[in-house]
Structure to design on (87 residues):
């Protein structure tokens, strides 16, 4: 059965969204640049590992699509946070 991201509970979606943000921030802190291209795969892999550890069943491609949808928002949020810290 192929489960869609929209079928997850709200709390699960919130957790996954936070993990996407956290892993993107960790990537930025380690590499001093945002994940682009195939580097996004690294983020999705780490998030998916957390998802399976929590025993949330969702296909990998659903998380991949969701991350690509949210990536710009996440990057903008991180950039805003970083610029606020520098002021």
């Amino acid at each position: 059965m192929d489960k869609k991201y929209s079928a997850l509970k709200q709390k699960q979606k919130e957790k996954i969204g936070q993990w996407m943000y956290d892993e993107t921030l960790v990537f930025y802190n380690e590499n001093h640049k945002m994940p682009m291209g195939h580097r996004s795969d690294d983020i999705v892999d780490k998030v998916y590992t957390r998802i399976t550890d929590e025993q949330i069943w969702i296909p990998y491609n659903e998380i991949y699509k969701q991350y690509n949808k949210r990536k710009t928002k996440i990057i903008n949020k991180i950039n805003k946070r970083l610029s606020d810290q520098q002021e």
Q: What stands out?
A: The radius of gyration is 13 Å. The chain has a mean pLDDT of 94.
